[in-house]
Amino acid sequence: MKDVYVIGLDYGTDSVRALVVHAGTGEVAGTAVHEYKRWKQGAYCDPTISQFRQHPLDYIEGLEETIKGALAKTSEEVRKNVVGISVDTTGSTPVAVDENGTPLALLPEFAENPNGMFILWKDHTANAEAEEINQLAYHWATDFTKYVGGIYSSEWFWAKILRTLRVDASIRSKAYSWVEHCDWISAVLTGNTNPRTLKRSRCAAGHKAMWNDEFEGLPSDEFLVKLDPLLGGLRDRLFDESYTSDVAMGKISPEWAEKLRLSSDVIIGVGAFDAHMGAVGACIEPYSLCKVIGTSTCDILTAPSEEVGHLLIRGICGQVDGSVVPGMLGMEAGQSAFGDIYAWFQRIITKPVRELLGEEAAEKLSQQLIPYLAEQAAKLPVKETDVVSLDWLNGRRTPDANHTLKGAMAGLNLGTDTVRIFKSLVESTAFGSKAIVERFLQEGVAIKQVIAIGGVAKKSPFVMQTLADVLNMPIKVAKSEQTCALGAAMCAAVAAGVYATMEEAQNAMSSGFDAVYEPRPDVSAVYQKLYANYLQFGHFIEHSYLKKLTEASLTA
Ligand SMILES: Nc1ncnc2c1ncn2[C@@H]1O[C@H](COP(=O)(O)OP(=O)(O)O)[C@@H](O)[C@H]1O
Ligand SMILES: O=C(CO)[C@H](O)[C@H](O)COP(=O)(O)O
């Protein structure tokens, strides 16, 4: 094969990275990372009400800087031979756009309006709207939630749209349509951002917008109008079709070809979510569970549609034909907070240090804290009487989405120290993962192996060993530091015609695996008992304690 290159772009929660990859070998020729400037300053967000918005300029600046930066580390020869670019992003991260597909925050009058920005996956301001969608769906003749686990989530497309249209009259009058982040960036690169003609991702449409062939696309206008007349007519300004990530969205626009000094023949692939392209990058096989473990987790499972397509799997984030690999049913689950829980613990410890001892001491502590706590926690025995925590600090994504849930801790005594609390938080994230695995098994989908990718999988042997012990399954960690971007590069190679199938691209470009965590039978046996405590405690908090609190606040 001629020396041709592809670029994978991976937009994570905090930063975006570009990977220039040799399409024949998967060898990385150059990479660059860009942290979102406005996001880093906390702009447009209010964690106390779960509002998380990202400015389109953060994405556009990242697009240019990372591709230029990654190419700058390669030769002119490499640059000349780039044939494709594909993009993955977080999701559901939609934005209101005008007729041209311009996010409203890029128009001067909306430049500082968070409702005109991308509504990040972890924004939970639409809890009430998600509940309304569920209530209506339960009584509607066609169950539009059947392929998204039977429960619609506030992290998703329609709940976010409905909420925004309700609370902001200025957005309501200007929003022509709505576009997911992964579709918009890919469209920007092609120069056609027209919301009615740009090719929408199957992954985003199927998992988050209730798009399905069986419904002839999105939920009916009748359903949407019943939900709220504000949604009337919007379906016609969205899309009928969706496309898998082996398909080309179009060619790079002359403007972007010039800006990036790339050939005007570069193909831009149809986008998808980070975890789905990450699973491609990790060479997911049928019945492998690929866990992307970072701020949150996104767990991806694939299986031949003809073997599992008849199942309706309760409480997951959807089952969509072709959302990961064409021809396979892609199933998604996940936890709304994983590494974010450790980051929260780090913040509550370092905050008083910053205020009492200054920035330098806080920064020093912050850098060493999690690795130190992990090292100490690894030395502790695992006992049935240990503290048990719930991992619902950002609500529960799966099984059974419920973003009104909150974290909790049980079993504290005067001997409970920082390390023991940290250990319990790590265990809670592993228990949350186990609940997902159990749900797939209960619903009749086998899991033959577990693969892990993402920041936590690479950085924390303690977390990974705990996870293997709790799941009582070996976990393989992909070698690449940038598996999502590598997966995007593989998709670009297929979309550009270098390979006919994803499988061929995976065989040629895989990074392989560099660690396997084996469960320790003695520790695992204790964890099965602690997991039972986690389930019991979770049941009490969800069905008794929090339920009473919610009822009390409604009657107050
Ligand atoms: N040494 C560590 N041990 C455990 N978790 C860590 C460690 N270092 C960072 N993290 C967690 O990793 C998460 C970020 O994961 P990463 O995959 O890099 O980013 P993203 O989720 O944005 O793609 C943060 O929530 C952070 O708390
Ligand atoms: O749900 C998702 C994909 O379907 C989110 O994009 C994902 O969970 C966020 O990713 P990260 O934790 O890596 O920032």
TrEMBL record:
Question: So which domain of life are we looking at?
Answer: Bacteria
EC number(s) reported in the record: 2.7.1.16
The record places domain Carbohydrate kinase FGGY N-terminal at 5-281
Which GO MF term does the entry hold, naming one? ribulokinase activity
Q: Look up the record and name the pathway of this protein.
A: Carbohydrate degradation; L-arabinose degradation via L-ribulose; D-xylulose 5-phosphate from L-arabinose (bacterial route): step 2/3
User: Pfam families annotated for this entry?
Assistant: FGGY_C, FGGY_N
Q: Which InterPro entries match?
A: ATPase_NBD (IPR043129), Carb_kinase_FGGY (IPR000577), FGGY_C (IPR018485), FGGY_N (IPR018484), Ribulokinase (IPR005929)
This enzyme catalyses:
L-ribulose + ATP = L-ribulose 5-phosphate + ADP + H(+); D-ribulose + ATP = D-ribulose 5-phosphate + ADP + H(+)
Q: List each copy of the Carbohydrate kinase FGGY C-terminal domain by range.
A: 292-496
Entry keyword set = Arabinose catabolism, ATP-binding, Carbohydrate metabolism, Kinase, Nucleotide-binding, Transferase
Respond yes or no to whether keyword Kinase is given for this record: yes
Q: What family does the entry list?
A: Belongs to the ribulokinase family.
- What is the name of this protein? Ribulokinase
Q: Supply the source organism for this entry.
A: Xanthocytophaga flava
Gene name for this UniProt entry: araB
